[in-house]
Amino acid sequence: MSLSTLAPVDAVWASSKFIPIPTADILTFAFANLGRYDQNAPIFVDARSPSDSVSALHAYRIVHQLIRGFKELGLKEGDCVCLHSYNNIWYPLLWLAIIGAGGCVSGTNPGYSSSELVGHFNLTKPKYILSEVACIKPIIDAASQCNIATSNIFFVGTQDIPHVHGCRSWRTLLIDCECDWSASNQHDAHSAPNRVAVYAMTSGTTGLPKVAMISHRYVVAQTVFLESQFDARPYQPSQLICLPVFHAFASPLALVLPLRRGIPTYFLPRFTLQGFLHAVGAFSITDTPVVPPIIASLNQSPESDHHLLRSLRYVICAGAPMTTRVQTKLYDILDAHAVISQCWGTTEGGWHTLFDWQEKDTSGSVGRLMPNVQMKVIDDDGNPVGEDDKLGEALIRSPIMFSGYLDNPDANKEAFDVDGFYRTGDRVYVQNNKIFHEGRIKEVMKVNGWQVSPTELETVLMEHPLISDAAVVGMTRENQLGIQVTLPCAYVVRVHVESVGQGSGTSNTDVRGGLEPLTAKEVTDFIASKLISYKHLTGGVVFVKEIPRSSTGKIMRRLLSATELDSSN
C-alpha cells in the first residue's frame, strides 16, 4: 500500500491501492460469508472462561432473536440504544442486533461516572440502555436524572436472575423468530449505506465532546479494508481483544470482521499483564491490537513469561506514536516472524494508516495510507504541502468518514475544508512514502489513547467555588519506559478566600472550613471525584494570576507557560 501523489499541483497524497466498497447494510454484510468457514466453531470466546463461547451460527440466531425482541419492545428506526459494558462475547451480538432493528448503538465507557453519563445521555438521548451488572449503579443514577425509566434499562451478564436493581435481563429480549432485518427496515440497497448505525463519542479537534454519526458504509468500508490485510496472511489468524470495543481502534477488528472471515476472537474485559500473557499462550493468539502502555508492560514482563508471546505474528499499536526504542525492545521478545505495526486514525475517519502484515518498519512511522484514503497536508497558513519532510495538519478524505456531528452544525462546518477533507488536528509529515505523526495542533489531547477535551475539564473546574478561571493543556513527556505520554495539566486562578460567599449568604468557612487558599491537591481531588481516571490532572496544577484570553474570550493556550504565577500559597 504505497503512497503516491495524485497531482503535484494539488498536493494530495493517496494510497495506490483501491478496493470497491459493497453497497450493503452492516447485518447483511456481516453474515454474508456463513457457510464459507466452519460456522459451528467458536468465533467469540471469553479468554478467561473459554467454555463460554459463541459460534457464527449461534450468533446469527441470537441476533435474529434480539432484533425481534427490540422491535417488540418498541424500538423505532433511529432510536438510540446505549451499550454500557466491558468486552464480552455478547457485546458484538447486542451491537449488531440494535443496528439490525433499525436503532443507533452508542457505546459508553463503563468507567464513566454518573455525571459523565448524564452528559452523554443529554447528547445521544437513548431510549433504552443495556449495562453490565458491575457498572449499572451509575447508569441507574444518570438515567433517573435524564428521565429514562428503569423499565428501559436491561442488565448484561451471565447471572440467571430476573432482575438487578429493578432492571430486567437482556435475555428477556430473546424471542424466537425468522426476522429479516433488511426487509423489516424497508430500505433499498442504495439508501442502506448512508443510514446512521452508530453514535460515537469524540472530542473532535476542539471544544466539548460531540457525537459522531457513523453510517453503515463507514463500518462496511473499514471492514473491507481490513479483510484485504487478513486475506494476505499465510497463517490462520486468531486475535485477542483487550482494548475496549466501543473505541474506534478495536471495534473494526472485534465486531464484524470475525464473522466475515471466521477469525476466532478472544475477549478480555480489559488489559492485565497476566491475563494477556495467559490468553496469548493458552490460545496461540497470532494477532492483537495494543496501545503503547501495553507494549511497555510487555517489555517489563519477566523473561520467564516471554515464551507465552511466541505465537504472536502481528501486533498493531495505536493511540499514540510508539518510539523506536520501545518497538525494538518488544521485537527482541517476540518470535522472529512477528511484525509490530503502527496505526493512525480518528473516530471521525476510522483507520487512516497501517503497514502491511509482512513489513517490519522501525522508523517510527505510523504507516502508509489505507486503500481509497486521500490526505492533504497544510501548513500553519493553510497552504498545501506537497513535499517530503514538511510538517503540517493532516486532512483526510475516505469512504470511512463520519456523517457529521449530531445536532452540531457549527462543528460540522469547522470539521471539513471546501473539498470535503476532514481536519484531523494531527500534525504529520511524509517521508519515503511513509507517514510520521508529530503530535496535535488542536487543543484536544490524547491520554493513553483516549481523547480528552480540555474544555470538558475546564467546565468541571469552574464548578468549584474557589476557582474563578481555569485552562487545561496537555504536557507531553517521555516516561521511564520510553513511552511518549500526555498528562493533563490545569492552570487555575483562585478566588480570594475573603470574597467567597459575599452576597450569597455563604461564608468561606462554609465552603472549605477555613481561610487557607485552595491547594493543588484539592483541585486534583475535585477532578478525580467527577471524571474517569484518564481525565485526571496527572500533569499537575499551576496557580496563576490570570488566564490569557483573546478579545473574544478564547483561551490562548500557547501563552499559558509564560503567565505570571500566583505565589500566594
From TrEMBL:
InterPro entries: AMP-bd_C, AMP-bd_C_sf, AMP-binding_CS, AMP-dep_synth/lig_dom, ANL_N_sf
Source organism: Rhinocladiella mackenziei CBS 650.93
Protein name as it appears in the record: Rhinocladiella mackenziei CBS 650.93 unplaced genomic scaffold supercont1.12, whole genome shotgun sequence
Residues making up the signal peptide according to the UniProt record: none
Recorded GO MF terms: ATP binding; CoA-ligase activity
Domain AMP-dependent synthetase/ligase: 42-406
Domain (AMP-binding enzyme C-terminal) ranges: 456-554
Top-rank taxon, per record: Eukaryota
Alphabetic keyword roster: ATP-binding, Ligase, Nucleotide-binding
BP GO terms, sorted: secondary metabolic process
Family per record: Belongs to the ATP-dependent AMP-binding enzyme family.
Known pathway: Secondary metabolite biosynthesis
